[in-house]
Write a structure and sequence with these properties.
The chain is of the alpha+beta class. The chain has a single domain, classed as 3-Layer(aba) Sandwich (Glutaredoxin), CATH 3.40.30.10. 39% of the residues lie in helices and 24% in strands. It has helices spanning 2-13, 15-28, 55-58, 97-113, 130-140, 151-156, 185-197; strands spanning 29-33, 39-44, 68-70, 76-78, 86-92, 118-124, 146-148, 162-163, 165-169, 175-180. It has a 5-stranded mixed sheet with strand order 7-6-5-9-10, covered by helices on one side. Helix 2 runs parallel beside helix 4.
Length: 199
């Protein structure tokens, strides 16, 4: 009983901190991913530096690391098989609120541009694998392929400090945008449209 009284006292004294924390988490905190399954949070995504500098402007012509991963349908998916298309690779998890917030936008983006040379690809970092991901995909009506991430692919993409982390890759396989944390749909759509127009 004393434990509960102490908890109440702490909440009453720090209610403004509790409310601020809840609001930050609700509108898009970045969830730090650790391979041991530990979850921590950092500041809102909007406060993070935007790494979405086109490679042609920055001079950083980084080829997206290739990978072969197993999809939720049991198929082997290789990133390089999508060469010639614009690809968005989204590292996410079912337990991550800002990841969930982006998914409806990715569903719409894929529906709108899939016939124009666009491919959306989710990389799940869920510890529970198919048992976590497949029911979630059905519930949310996800219409694009999702593969199960590995520590190797996380390492290849710079360690993935937080999720969602999303990469936009051009037709030649170069990373042209990298985003950590939630972004508005227009951020991805504008970049995808631009890259689809490139020869």
């Amino acid at each position: 009983m004393a434990h509960n009284i102490k908890e109440q006292s702490f909440l009453q004294r720090n209610i403004h901190l509790v409310i601020i924390t809840a609001v930050l988490m609700d509108v898009g905190a970045v969830y730090l991913y650790k391979s041991d399954g530990a979850i921590t949070t950092t500041a809102m995504a909007a406060t993070l530096p935007d790494a979405s500098v086109p490679a042609s402007a920055s001079g950083d012509n980084t080829i997206a690391p290739d990978f072969t991963l197993t999809s939720t349908e049991g198929k082997e998916i290789r990133l390089s098989d999508y060469r010639g298309q614009v690809v968005v690779v989204d590292f996410w998890a079912t337990w991550c609120p800002p990841c969930k917030a982006e998914i409806p936008d990715f569903i719409k983006l894929y529906s709108q541009y899939k016939d124009e040379g666009f491919q959306m690809l989710g990389v799940s970092l869920d510890q529970g694998g198919l048992n976590d991901v497949v029911p979630f995909m059905k519930e949310r009506g996800m219409n694009y392929p999702v593969v199960l991430g590995t520590e190797e692919v996380v390492s290849a993409y710079g360690g993935i400090r937080g999720i969602p982390t999303t990469f936009v890759i051009d037709k030649k396989g170069y990373v042209r945008g990298a985003f950590e944390g939630y972004r508005e749909a227009s951020v991805f759509e504008n970049l995808v449209k631009k890259l689809l127009d490139e020869k």
